[in-house]
Amino acid sequence: MVWLGSTVHLFLRFDGRIGRGRFWAGLFTLAFIGSGLVVFGPDLFAARGGSGTDIWLVFLALLLGVWMLAALMANRLHDGNRTGWLFLLYGGGPIILARFNDGMAAADNPVWAPLACYLAALILVLWSLVDLGARPGTRGANRFGPASRAH
């Protein structure tokens, strides 16, 4: 049952540290689950008739997915001796830029303005992947706990 405690820590807790390998494994796991929900979710939703209860289940699944991604990213940020609150920049920044872009495209703005928003969002996503997935964490113990097993 060690794997269960490790999985709970990886996806549900915001304390401690994880290395790059566990981060990538967790990220691919979340992507696989999310892809399955996108592919099979609409069929399951339609088969049940699309009741109001189903909307709440979709909302709870989305909330759980955001929580799991936030915990994964926070623990990886802790490995670099950085605060987990940077998740708001790495996870929320591209979403905010994309929503801002939608408003810019609808208004009477220059053609380059929406492109600049998408480019900024893309740069932020790529930087977060490099920062969290490629940079090694701090060696030895830091303020978030002992070193993760592999650097």
Number of domains: 1
Class derived from helix and strand content:
mainly alpha
Distance between the termini: 25 Å
Radius of gyration: 18 Å
Regarding quaternary structure, what we see is single chain
- Individual helix count: 5
Strand content: under 5%
> What share of the residues lie within helices?
over 70%
Number of strands: 0
Largest sheet, if any? none
Q: H/E series, N to C?
A: HHHHH
Low-confidence stretches: none
Mean pLDDT: 82
Task: Estimate the global geometry from the Cα principal axes.
Answer: flat
Give an overview in words:
This protein is mainly α. It has one domain. 72% of the residues lie in helices and 0% in strands. The protein contains five helices and no strands. Helix 1 crosses helix 3, helix 2 runs antiparallel to helix 3 and helix 4 runs antiparallel to helix 5. The longest helix is centred in the first third of the chain and has 28 residues. The protein is flat and about 50 Å long.
Brief descriptors of the model:
151 residues
Secondary-structure blueprint:
Elements: H1 2-12, H2 20-47, H3 52-79, H4 87-106, H5 112-133
Helix pairs in contact: 1-3, 2-3, 4-5
Question: Care to give the gist of this entry?
Answer:
The protein is an all-alpha fold and 151 residues long. It has helices at residues 2-12, 20-47, 52-79, 87-106, 112-133.
